[in-house]
Amino acid sequence: MRLIVIGGDAAGMSAAAQARRRRGPDDLEILAFEMGRFVSYSACGIPYWIGGLVDGPDALIARTPAAFRTAGIEVRTRHEVTGIDLDARTVTVRDRDAGRTRHEGFDHLVYATGASPVRPSWAATDAGGVFGVQTLEDGSALREWLDREKPADAVVIGGGYIGVEMAEAMINRGLRVTLVERAAQPMGTVDEDMGALVAASIRNLGIELRTGVTVEGLETANGRIAAVATDAGAIPAGVVVIGLGVRPNTALAEAAGLPLGTTGGIRTDLRQRAADGVWAAGDCTEVHHRISRRAVHVPLGTHANKQGRVAGINIGGGYATFPGVIGTAVTKLCDLEVARTGLSSREAAQAGFATVTATVESTNRAGYFPGAVPMTVKVIAERDTGVLLGAQIVGRTEAAKRIDAFAVAVWNGMTVSEMTGLDLGYAPPYAPVWDPILIAARKAEEVVTRPVIR
Amino acid sequence: MRLIVIGGDAAGMSAAAQARRRRGPDDLEILAFEMGRFVSYSACGIPYWIGGLVDGPDALIARTPAAFRTAGIEVRTRHEVTGIDLDARTVTVRDRDAGRTRHEGFDHLVYATGASPVRPSWAATDAGGVFGVQTLEDGSALREWLDREKPADAVVIGGGYIGVEMAEAMINRGLRVTLVERAAQPMGTVDEDMGALVAASIRNLGIELRTGVTVEGLETANGRIAAVATDAGAIPAGVVVIGLGVRPNTALAEAAGLPLGTTGGIRTDLRQRAADGVWAAGDCTEVHHRISRRAVHVPLGTHANKQGRVAGINIGGGYATFPGVIGTAVTKLCDLEVARTGLSSREAAQAGFATVTATVESTNRAGYFPGAVPMTVKVIAERDTGVLLGAQIVGRTEAAKRIDAFAVAVWNGMTVSEMTGLDLGYAPPYAPVWDPILIAARKAEEVVTRPVIR
């Protein structure tokens, strides 16, 4: 039996590792093809590497091809799969360095091609100095440009997680940074009032934040980026980072006849199966959102790892399912911490929920304890039932990971009333005697139980 | 209508505040008697005040008698209730300063007398230099002794939360500190293997930790403490802090005929009612443990506040219940963080559960991220069902409050298998891509699903 893995990052290599754990080399041959030079690395760490906070690229690599080989998993980097024949059970593979193409047969196939940065038509350019940050190669190229060209002005397009993290990286490197966001607030994954708190912090860092501004084109000079053209004028740029989200890489899958979902990602069953003997996992797939009960595309390493593990267990003869996501995400912008789980107000409305919200200001520690700083907690609950639909946190320290308690509550369908009784950890260095989570739940409970005139 | 509150700290004053919120002064007169000089303070902050980390006593006071008065709640400090007549609906109150005693009638009574430090018979002494730390007065007296007598050697008796926190306080003040614990490991609320990690950290701080040592008496000289006599020899002491836990203050309640439970605490119903129109809350009561399904005595400010709030809502004409506890607790010893929730291995066995455990070593942040330090996570699950019964964490930073995610999982009766799919917050500054909680759940799942030969 032979397993072929297309894509050597989190999802693909997790699948390979789990399959190997359950089936020895005599039982299952495992062969992974990766288009790039690196496998099994933390793409999430790239902004911190660019900013000089962590070393790279080696430190970001969890496991090298050599280490996989020792574990009985053959990895071929710089090998691009260019076709899949589901009937013949073969893939076509091009060795990018040797320029050779050959066919390889499989019994099981893991499709884990990831996602690629969205590049609007205006971003099509051969000019130097325009970057996405998805792969270690992207990171290397951007660092090389910064080191060699020493640009003074950076423009980051897109105020989501990647955009905000990249803006911080550029500030840390001493550039003047403009962050351009089309919406009224950055960080559109949280509600606008919470986004406004993030906006204030971004500006405090010395980043020029331009919201409500639409990019219209890139201006180049002598084959290099010179400025970003927007509906509010041109912004000079010696380097541009585009952080407008990613789209699942599905071209190969589509050509092979694998099913795509409504989000554009590959559709799988709960066991990560896309077709008989064909498994898909990671950023190229769509996942089930447990609260909206819709398919969503949430390209995060944590999901990719879990999905890959599930596929690998199933390939290995075990039984595992991926239970879906609830939209938990955390990010850090210097000392600002932002977190969310469940549905935002807008997502809840789109999913058909009538909601109430409650927002509280509290502190991370007992007010009298050294290091106590403010944090804002927002709760989104179903109006007539009080079921917790989502929560958001903006704070300075010891704030973001508090979202996990909310996440487990969302996962279990708790109501805000039930939550007021939760037995959470209390000691003065860790929380006020009423934890911010409990205060938020109490305030939300009051709104839920208030009579509603319809 | 008149509400009398006995005991002016967390439980009593929370009840008063909630009752007042729902019923105005014309509808309900509220009168609170407090034996000591202070009301509504954070007893949990006392060790940090002793250690000089926070100011006191004022900073530890959440609300003064004057502030309560403004809110329509009359508070009499230095007033000791010496008797309750449930038939006559009166209490006997002694003004400790004026020396007068009088009777006061009530319609509702809140009994919130708290708990007192356990003092074994060997601890009965009039000698100076022996302290418990339960009230702000205790804290003041201890600070005064330290400032005036400048003892060189402190002995802290009892290696639980208070003992450990007080040992740290004494070290911070520059004393030589010996911490004496009868059991094999300190912090008996966590399993012995986790306690051993705590022991190592205590010793690293320069605290002389003596485990397996039983105190037999106090040696005094010239009316002052001189040494602590143990079964392993005498330990010189210029100051002794006794941290052997607390017992509910129930003498008054018992005399009045209020029901006591098996733990010695006052027994109430879910609404915190001990008798018709009589409510009890806080450290003087016992509570329901949701996992062992037994009554337990867990004297923590967080429960006292919640119970007091429940009593106050009910007195105010609302409806509220206290859902019980699951044994969550967190503590900090310099940079060591210790947390637990649910049942420990021993508690689980006592409650009749057959258990399996899994312990993992991970880090608080992605391994490559600056500030990544080790943390140890232990999971205790029911052997045949995989239901999460408890969890414990020992780490250096960003560790203890992770217990809240476990706490919510325990609260909801999740299995460790279900937990492996949880959507927890991931970003390199906050967690490895597999959060330590997920790694622990995965390891526990493997143990649970392993066939058991009986």
Describe this structure in words.
The structure is a homodimer of 454-residue chains. Chain A is of the alpha/beta class and 454 residues long. Chain A has three domains: 2-36 and 78-115 and 247-315, FAD/NAD(P)-binding domain; 119-244, FAD/NAD(P)-binding domain, CATH 3.50.50; 329-446, 3-Layer(bba) Sandwich (FAD/NAD(P)-binding domain), CATH 3.50.50.60. In chain A, 26% of the residues lie in helices and 29% in strands. Chain A is built from twelve helices and 26 strands. In chain A, strands 3-2-1-7-19-18 form a six-stranded mixed sheet. In chain A, strands 9-16-10-11-12 form a five-stranded parallel sheet, with helices on one face. In chain A, strands 22-23-26-25-24 form a five-stranded antiparallel sheet, sandwiched between helices. In chain A, strand 22 and strand 23 form a beta hairpin. In chain A, helix 1 runs parallel beside helix 8 (301-315). The longest helix of chain A is centred in the last third of the chain and has 15 residues, at 301-315. The first copy, chain A, is globular, with a radius of gyration of 23 Å. The first copy, chain A, starts with a strand and ends in a 6-residue tail after the last helix. The model of chain A has no long low-confidence stretch (mean pLDDT 96). At the A-B interface, helix 8, strand 22 and helix 10 of A face helix 8, strand 22 and helix 10 of B. Chains A, B: Residues 330-432 form the Pyridine nucleotide-disulphide oxidoreductase dimerisation domain. Chains A, B: Residues 2-295 form the FAD/NAD(P)-binding domain. Chains A, B: GO terms for molecular function: oxidoreductase activity. Chains A, B: InterPro entries: FAD-bd_OxRdtase, FAD/NAD-bd_sf, FAD/NAD-binding_dom, FAD/NAD-linked_Rdtase_dimer_sf, Pyr_nucl-diS_OxRdtase_dimer. Chains A, B: Belongs to the class-III pyridine nucleotide-disulfide oxidoreductase family.
